[in-house]
């Protein structure tokens, strides 16, 4: 037992090992256990709250047992288990075999093994030989999550897509193989670890599949810098903090508490969600118990087999934590950077050191607020300093840059940048299809949606909150509205758990409120509003597996009554899932969500219709969800930010003929002609 | 004649003076002319295009006469004129008296005069005396554009709102008087320059107006830093470009040509629009003939007189150029800054030096694109450098921070930050109304909409362009779509000029295309897409003056066939306008807009439901419109940006226990286990 570890802190290396040991001891010594995750089983919230209260009030801390959630297979079987190991008491509290049709995620070791299996398969080799590729050509295998169609898919499988490196530069290990897709697609069974089937991909405008024929060579399309003629006219831009950063990181065993500009919160990190923020407070007022990216789903548009099973859950099928990049100084963030490391579990029950998975830095985000008094000419301008916690994940071809951003006006932004490489497939010359874009000769990038679910577990001035929405409506013409210009807002309280859309034409704004705490100036309940970009919901039809599985993808907002363990909007096990175990199901309980402990899932996304400009690597597409106070404070919370001045900002003047006003901005009152002194 | 001045460059000081002189010469010497604007009359586009073509091809430049557009009153009359003076030939080409019900904008000198008139009026003084304000109290008068209601509003007038400085600190010229509004509202006639009426403002929940009674003192709410306890824990963050900036500014008389990262464009500046960009090109390919903020309208929600006339057109009623801030080094921009100056006209026909009205700088905007090859561990990451041209305008209480932002991926962003002070009015204690928020004791900030119109005059690979929109639709279930997951995009060509909405649920994306120029790789027409945030359209009813006047505020997109002079979406004269002279009227011509010279007006905005956090100065609310290439290039245009490396970016490592990987990111191929070498 590690008494020193905070109940919300991730498992330590020794705790992970203890967890795997406890599970291994359940079985004979020769049993080969394939661990999928050994991660913190968070304490029940009713247990955690008294701890947090004691912590904030400097009272003695209650004891909370540390527990590991362990998900594992008996290796090379379909025997999936989930267990909870009490690390404090060193015993397994529960151990349940799951299924049928419940499958765990991929893992890095397994993906590499599947690649080898597919490429070593004699049938696959025979198909590749039929391509008559130049000698030395390197074929690459990208295993894909199999997806669900309800037809012979009870086993856990991988659908592998084959590509090749530029055959004229085969030794380049970073050749962009996505520019050279092949039409051969082996399926690997994870129990037998053998190729169970070789699919041929349709490469025309219909679902015809053709036998493998000699490959007509296509040009390469590389993204590595040595393959480009690089621009030479970009000058360095350095961010310098001569007195250091304004934030403080207090490392507490496996988690860190961040203090910055009245904000304080704890950062955790786990296999599935990556970054998790706990106990988010501003100026010692509670805002959120927990914030995390809960889920994402990427359904593809191509209707044809096997593409019609492509609908990746990158968190549940892979893991935003385990796929996190080791961030590099001077590459992924700019300025004065603090990195956080994490420890996760490997497939043998050991540990993986995940270094530099979160970078923390400040950035200047332009002007925060400004006003110029036109009578005196005096301007007061305050810049908007932000604190960024960024993590980047690579899920095969794609990258997501995920960030929590805090500012000095009490606002939190969750930012997603989608980048990386489009998932490609071969297309016959001269063919056009309406579900994808030709991004390179012979290469189709199919349309796809990225639908994200951000989980907000609010605690605005306490744990009993409500969800409301405002609408703005025109007033009817009347004696009171003689010019027909009036309009008003109307607030509606969400009484029952459910899914909700956001109607821009009504200016619907969802807010989380604490109805018991009123603003001392205007008497309104304290609140935070949710500003998420509207998006096209999942296009797959209601009867489809895509729709059933991505339980969050049909609504902008889901609200549920809090229950322990309901963290992932698509359900706990998304790989080849069948639906019914995620937020849509939880919301269907029609629980009371008024003035109780609620959870809000905020969905947002893009329908990515590829442009040729998105290849070979796409420029970031940026999505932002803002959480902003509404009558939570008594005035602009950034009013006390020191004004922006040259002595602090030290900007450089480039324009020679520039006439800057003198530093005396305040004009003597007598020279101000536009006031009447009584 | 100034042969050296580019036909699209703003008028020089001497040209302004020549223009006013030519007008003055039309009248007897004693005639007092009140100039409202003396600004470049841009050449007909058919005249400008051959000039630009010659310019880009290094051919001899055709001669284009320089012309001034002059708008003026015979002072203290309603005699409004618009004239065009040929500066090259030194003669007035046209001079037309306008009206009735056509009025010009406010101007700075007039506003100050109106303030004086209102505060010096004996009736107003008598009303103020009834307030029994403490001795020394300073009353402030904010003249507002009168608006239109069709009732006794043929004359041009100002509706003045009165406030006071904190009576306990009356000598503070920068006291926030908006925290202390009074219920007395004088109306000033601009012909007589006298108070024509004193309105009493309703201060309750209905439209009752009460006689002036002694004022009950309220607390102040200041925004100036000396009234705050400032934060002391914010450390400096400096942006340093040791080798200078990457952009080049070529000053050419009154305009500047900017070269940066394959971009090239000309910057103009005028009284009404402020910044205007001309002849925007990327890598020597034409993109836009002209880009500018065309108009904005801010209608208020309060249905009661006189608030129901509040609907400001900050460009047409005031002017984004003439209201531009003199930007300060180290305050308004961060880093290495180049400032542009402008020269505008004053009310006497002279000139006003507008220094530092545009600041130009580069900024780092996070990661531009990234991909990590999970097999080799090699990451290629490119940061997104942006070029920003920023201008800030103050329109009485409000500020707008307006910026054109360019990046290395061929994208242009137009950014608006709304900040400044809410327009306030007095409210009785204990009253709540559904059309506004109490932001301070006794102070109501009414809801209002900010609706912007961005004018795009495209020239994608030539001047004949079209507007199309894509939609994404689910496929019906079929043998071809057996899993009901397929979807497709459909492109519709806009044939006739008109107004269009953007349906997010159909993923409608508007694109400007040149159908005659096909992408060499995929054969698609070259295009730029328009990504503007959806917004609630104007709530004022169709029969209202607000609706009729703000001709752009009911649609997300307007497209017209190009005609010279159709620059301002709300019409040329917005002050007390009656409608019928703006983009809705132009679009109603139902002109062909397919493969011809078109103009696209992009609307966006916010329905600002004030929060108490928006007072006394509101944190910036940020809106962005993106223009992004779609099949315009043959690959990611930022592919040739040098990768992000520490030797260039020089970041600082804060975390001591940080383990950075060695600089050898490229793994030897032999150690990469996941490829099959033939």
Automatic annotation (TrEMBL), chains A, B:
Broad EC category: oxidoreductase
Gene3D superfamilies the UniProt entry points to: 3.10.450.40, Copper amine oxidase, catalytic domain
Alphabetically ordered keywords of this record: Copper, Disulfide bond, Metal-binding, Oxidoreductase, TPQ
Enzyme Commission designation: 1.4.3.-
Keyword match Metal-binding: yes
Superkingdom of the source species: Eukaryota
GO biological process, one term: amine metabolic process
Subunit structure: Homodimer.
Protein name: Amine oxidase
Species annotation: Xylona heveae (strain CBS 132557 / TC161)
């Amino acid at each position: 037992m590690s008494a020193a570890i905070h109940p919300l802190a991730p498992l330590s290396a020794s705790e992970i090992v203890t967890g795997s040991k406890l599970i291994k001891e359940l079985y004979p010594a020769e049993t080969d256990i394939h661990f999928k995750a050994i991660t913190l089983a968070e304490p029940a919230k009713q247990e955690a709250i008294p701890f947090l209260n004691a912590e904030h009030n400097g009272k003695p801390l209650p004891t909370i047992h540390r527990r590991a959630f362990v998900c594992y297979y008996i290796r090379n079987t379909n025997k999936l288990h989930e267990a909870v190991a009490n690390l404090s008491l060193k015993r397994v509290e529960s151990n349940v075999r799951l299924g049928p049709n419940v499958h765990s995620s991929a893992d890095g070791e397994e993906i590499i093994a599947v690649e080898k299996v597919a490429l070593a398969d004699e049938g696959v080799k025979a198909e590749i030989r039929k391509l008559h590729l130049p000698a030395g050509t390197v074929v690459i295998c990208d295993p894909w999550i199999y997806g669900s169609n309800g037809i012979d898919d009870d086993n856990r499988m991988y659908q592998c897509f084959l590509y090749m490196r530029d055959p004229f530069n085969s030794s380049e290990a970073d050749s962009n193989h996505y520019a050279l897709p092949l039409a051969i697609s082996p399926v690997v069974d994870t129990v037998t670890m053998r190729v169970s089937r070789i699919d041929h991909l349709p490469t025309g405008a219909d679902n015809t599949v053709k036998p493998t024929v000699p490959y007509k060579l296509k040009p390469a399309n590389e993204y590595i810098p040595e393959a480009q003629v690089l621009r030479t006219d970009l000058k360095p831009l350095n961010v310098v903090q001569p007195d250091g950063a304004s934030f403080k990181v207090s490392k507490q065993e496996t988690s860190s508490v961040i203090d910055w500009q009245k904000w304080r919160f704890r950062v955790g990190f786990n296999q599935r969600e990556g970054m998790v923020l706990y106990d988010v407070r501003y100026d010692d007022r509670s805002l959120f118990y927990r914030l995390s990216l809960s889920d994402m789903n990427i359904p593809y548009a191509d209707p044809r087999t096997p593409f019609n099973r492509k609908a990746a859950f990158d968190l549940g099928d892979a893991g935003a934590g385990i796929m996190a990049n080791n961030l590099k100084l001077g590459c992924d963030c700019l300025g004065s950077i603090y990195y956080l490391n994490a420890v996760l579990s490997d497939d043998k029950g050991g540990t993986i050191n995940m270094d530099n998975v979160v970078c923390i830095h400040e950035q200047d985000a332009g002007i925060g607020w400004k006003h110029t008094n036109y009578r005196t000419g005096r301007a007061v301008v305050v810049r908007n300093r932000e604190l960024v916690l960024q993590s980047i994940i690579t899920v095969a071809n794609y990258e997501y840059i995920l960030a929590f951003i805090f500012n000095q006006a009490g606002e939190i932004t969750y930012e997603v940048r989608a980048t990386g490489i489009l998932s490609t497939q071969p297309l016959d010359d001269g063919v056009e299809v309406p579900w994808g874009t030709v991004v390179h000769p012979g290469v189709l990038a199919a349309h796809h949606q990225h639908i994200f679910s951000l989980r907000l577990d609010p605690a605005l001035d306490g744990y009993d909150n409500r969800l409301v929405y405002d609408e703005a409506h025109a007033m009817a013409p009347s004696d009171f509205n003689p010019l027909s210009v009036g309009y008003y807002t109307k607030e509606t309280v969400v009484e029952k758990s459910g899914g909700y859309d956001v109607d821009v034409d009504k200016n619907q704004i969802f807010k989380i409120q604490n109805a018991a705490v009123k603003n001392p100036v205007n008497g309104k309940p304290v609140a935070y509003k949710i500003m998420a970009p509207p998006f096209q919901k999942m296009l797959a039809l209601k009867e489809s597996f895509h729709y059933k599985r991505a339980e969050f993808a049909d609504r902008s907002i889901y609200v549920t009554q809090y229950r322990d363990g309901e963290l992932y909007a698509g359900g706990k096990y998304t790989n080849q899932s069948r639906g019914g175990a995620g937020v849509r199901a939880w919301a269907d309980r029609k629980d009371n969500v008024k003035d109780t402990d609620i959870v809000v899932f905020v969905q947002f996304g893009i329908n990515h219709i590829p442009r040729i400009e998105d290849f070979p690597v796409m420029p970031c597409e940026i999505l932002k969800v803002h959480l902003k106070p509404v009558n939570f404070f008594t005035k602009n919370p950034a009013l006390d930010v020191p004004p922006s001045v040259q002595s602090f900002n030290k900007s450089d003047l480039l324009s020679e003929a520039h006439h800057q006003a003198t530093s005396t901005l305040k004009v003597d009152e007598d020279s101000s002609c536009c006031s009447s002194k009584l």
